[in-house]
Request: fold
Amino acid sequence: MIEINLVPDVKQEFIRAQRVRAQVISWSISFGVIAIGVVVVLAIYVFGIQFGRSAIADSQIDSQYKTLSKTTDLSKLLTVQNQLTKITQLHDASPETSRLFDTLASIIPPEPNNIQISDLTVDNSVGTFSFTGVAPSGYAALETFKKTLQNSEVQYTPATQDGQTAAQPQSVALATNISISNVHYGLDANNNRVLTFSMSFTFAPQLFDNTLGNVHIVIQDIGNNTDSYVGIPKSLFTQTPTSAGGN
Reply:
């Protein structure tokens, strides 16, 4: 059987072009429908689900607000809770004043050169000790106490940045700017003759720093521990002047 194609080539190209156009239109319609479906789904989510979630959240907020409104002294409770959050910060910044008693026990000489302290004032803002003292044995006890104070150091273990403690301890002078005034003899409650005085000095800030570990007082060796050296002021002794003109 013999088939003869009577359709011209131009007609075949036209039919092929119409077929391609129909496919493109069909695909465009399909993508358009899909896009419209996506837009509809997003619109449902935004205007439906989100609105519902927002309504539920508002309802919960109103419910919680009504519950809190019924709480007695709510403002005081919130203030206390806010202060509780700052306890750690306040604790780190507060001085470790409990070291004061150990410090006094370390720097007060033993009998017979002991002294008695009263009217003690510690000013952490400027770092000073101020107090009134009584020396039962007189000037020797006062001078012994002063020299002990001059040779006292605060030894401590510094903390590193990661919160761990360093291995090697460090030390700093306990007292500077030592001042003694109002020195005079008087009678105590038992009519005993005693020496009274007022003293003030600047203490090392490391003394009450609660971020430091193993803080304690170390008294360095004075070098001459005899009573004649410890109890007598250095101002009584001086070097012999040398002659400027020779013989």
Notes: The beta strands are 116-123, 128-135, 152-157, 170-173, 175-187, 193-203, 213-219. Residues 9-69 form the longest helix (61 residues). Confidence is low (pLDDT under 50) at residues 236-247.
